[in-house]
Amino acid sequence: MVHTILMLLAAPAADPVQWAQLTIEQRVIIRVPMAKGRAPTRVVPKNDERWEEKKGPRCVALRSIRGASIVVSNGIDLVLADRHRYRARLERGCDSASFYSGFYVEPDEDGSLCSGRDELQARSGASCAIDSFKRLVEAEPED
Predict the structure, then answer these.
(1) What φ, ψ does residue 10 adopt, rounded to 5°?
(2) Is the pLDDT score of 141 beyond 80?
(3) Of the candidates 117, 115, 120, which has an alpha carbon nearest to the alpha carbon of residue 131?
(4) Residue 35: which residues within 8 A CB-CB, separation 6 or more?
(5) Three-class SS of residue 104?
(6) Which of 1, 81, 82, 138 makes a 20 to 30 Å CA pair with 18?
(7) What percent of the chain has pLDDT over 70?
(8) Looking at the whole model, is its pTM more than 0.70?
């Protein structure tokens, strides 16, 4: 080891070595469109179309979301590939009307949209956290 140090000291002074670091970051954003045929305002449910909220999951797989619609003022209804529906309840103070033209989501590593963790970003710049998911089931017709 002493020989190596002596050789380095005896070596002619060369140009100083420059070091550089390059960091490449990738950002993926998924856009969820509103359901086809919906007006760009709050959708009023038809008389024959009623939904009941049941306990929902903590997370929904992003790859299964096919569209969304606005039916209530504090939530967004998600339509999944298997025809199931979930309502993403937004945090207090968020109005779903901000999301009339769809929304963006930055996916997490697990590929899921989760309550208490993720937020929806509107094209207008609004951003709302998801408070909870509710499973929607068709309500029994009233007699």
Answers:
(1) -85, -20
(2) no
(3) 115
(4) 67, 68, 69, 79
(5) strand
(6) 1
(7) 75
(8) no
For residues 87 and 78, give the distance between their C-alpha atoms in angstroms, rounded to a whole number: 6
Residue with tokens 């002619």: 12
Which uninterrupted H or E stretch holds 2? Answer: helix 2-10
Token pair for 80: 């999944």
Using CB atoms within 10 Å of the CB of residue 70, give its burial: 0 to 12 exposed, 13 to 18 middle, 19+ buried: buried
For position 38, what pLDDT does the model report? 45
What's the DSSP call for residue 90? E
3-state SS class at 134: strand
pLDDT digit string, tens, across residues 85-116: 999 999 998 988 888 888 888 888 999 999 99
